[in-house]
Amino acid sequence: MIKAEILNIGDEILYGQITNTNAQWISAELDKIGIRVVRHSVVSDTEEAILEGLQEAEKRADVVLITGGLGPTKDDITKKTLCKFFDVKLIRHPEALRAVTHFFESRGREMLEVNRQQADLPENAEYIPNLKGTAPGMWFEKNGKIFVSMPGVPHEMQFIMQSYVLENLQKFFHTPCIVHKMIKTVGIGESYLAREIETWENNLPENLKLAYLPAFGMVRLRITGLGYDQEAVRRQIEQEVDKVLPLIDKYVYGFDDDDLAIAVGRLLVQNKKTLAIAESCTGGYLAHCFTQHAGSSEYLKGALVAYSNEIKINVLGVKKETIEQFGAVSEQTVLEMASNIRKLCNADIGIATSGIAGPGGATPTKPVGTIWVAYADENGTSAKLYQLGNDRMVNIQVTANLLIDWLRRKQGGRVK
Amino acid sequence: MIKAEILNIGDEILYGQITNTNAQWISAELDKIGIRVVRHSVVSDTEEAILEGLQEAEKRADVVLITGGLGPTKDDITKKTLCKFFDVKLIRHPEALRAVTHFFESRGREMLEVNRQQADLPENAEYIPNLKGTAPGMWFEKNGKIFVSMPGVPHEMQFIMQSYVLENLQKFFHTPCIVHKMIKTVGIGESYLAREIETWENNLPENLKLAYLPAFGMVRLRITGLGYDQEAVRRQIEQEVDKVLPLIDKYVYGFDDDDLAIAVGRLLVQNKKTLAIAESCTGGYLAHCFTQHAGSSEYLKGALVAYSNEIKINVLGVKKETIEQFGAVSEQTVLEMASNIRKLCNADIGIATSGIAGPGGATPTKPVGTIWVAYADENGTSAKLYQLGNDRMVNIQVTANLLIDWLRRKQGGRVK
Lengths: 416, 416
Hints:
homodimer; alpha/beta; Molybdenum Cofactor Biosythetic Enzyme, Chain A; Alpha-Beta Plaits; Maf protein; six-stranded mixed β-sheet; five-stranded mixed β-sheet; 16 helices; 17 strands; 41% helix; 26% strand; globular
């Protein structure tokens, strides 16, 4: 089995100022292509430490993936150390220079000499484009082993891995194939889900494995298959998916990279329905769940963050007496919010949230975590009450997921 | 300076199934007592890998903190490997046996032989009580170096560190102290910032180090000081902060744990100003930046995600002719959005975004990344144009940061 070591460079990790999420992300990706990670090492931003890390990793692993220590400021000495390690010179790479020049020109920003220096690469480096930033990735081969150097900024590193490194590692090492299939569920807890599919799970073929991955009110089921014939493993997994789906159909919103909001957006487009949102406790996050994805303008007409009662009354048209009599966090208020935003935006569907996200705002009868949500369409308006926990950010996220799931069920579950 | 290495044992980390939060937590705690972490290593649950990790760590560090590989199941071979490393035997420790017996008795649970074996410790181990679980901590001394073995469950490890290890490390090593200070900037790139403060940086005292930590249009500057008199190092750092601040004052929104939106919220409260937001391309994310933090209701009246032109016209009151003549992504439209949301919400300040976040929506004259933002108050309304990149999520986040920064400058920079 091909062995890999992940070498992260950065004092900010050693000082405990940031979590090393890069190591986990890379490990999970390598696992998917059948490469075994045998070591994570985090070293300081010094030549001595980086060189020691490289030399040790070279002994243990066939692939060394390096992150961090690339950037325009002078504390970055990774490239010089790589030159020393490979016994080569730093040379200005024309393609890298064109890329960094384009990066600055397209943004109308002045380019400094330190930025130009980002195009200086060890002469044995294969240049890997980084469309997300200015520090390129580098691919090296030494005695049949592969070394890859990438910037430490997570979304830049992920871009380089996905657009170049993973594919080329598979080609280089002819790794056996692993096939993953993710079934994405919402609205059912992990242990209940496990009970529903117990018999099916116990009868899975030897080469297929199942994992439960829960987060914020949703559980992803991951089926992992191993084999040498990718198409055969894929077919085998699809057969198992066909068996398990009828058992949990109403909880399944999609597969693989499907996102709940994207899946629901697709349903709305299919059903030719438009959406309007009135948010109080979720404060814009619910709208953001939809708008962070391209294509949301096809069905989302608008959203109002009615944070103050004044806005609820004057802009959204909630009756003053409703708020005075029942409070802003109440069934009556949230029903008016959903119904009124639907009319205000001339949309087919209105949804609304009003709750106490915390840590402040609790009353004797309404503790932190008291959340009302509502749904309105041409058939009427209804509301649901949830009692969540004490963490503000978790409450915001779980509320959004629960309400989006309600919208999903009202729209028929999923696009088939 | 006393050097430490953190050695985490666990295949679940190497497979990417969990994030190694223990390494970060321990690093941050050691940093506070002036012990420099020089390496994080994660190794597999095998004797060979653990032994190699111990031998390497012994060469580099004065303190080796080990987590994981302790527990009742048979895959835990850490203790046997520690015996091999120290060349000692495993013996049943009476105090540890009493503790584990008590743990089970007090919970009314049956104790198995594998649980009794948890009281078997290498004979040179000092026993460290673990009141949160059944696997005890162990403290070893070898040639003036300290080795500590702890369970991998985070709250058990943290209990052992806080109740025993940190205090005993300080006593054993008479450690010097490290002081950190973070200066948080926005609105200037890393390389430009470096140019502004180059002379100051080059003249920093030997015992102070500077690092640049960039993300989404913001750069954090970290000054790290080392010395034996904590108060003196703190004063020395403050003197350097006083020197550098005038050079970059307008970019600095806060220090240490300050968050940009929280800092701007504080300014608004101090200035007794209320805020209203009209968002198009940021789609709710801008409001979420403020509302994710408790206390935002003190200054935020509301936000409108005017995603469709219909909402821009009918709810926000942007003139139909403006959108027809100049387009939704235009200076004229964003000016009306900021001005109108201010009036609609009866707020002191209105801010607005309209842009092409991507990947779709580009026109020949307006490429993806074309972003207009506007600011309105009692003195009038003005707009700014930015040309950002191709990544939708990055564009949304950077737009929010740039506009929050503009709001910050308009409100006086920062609370002083």
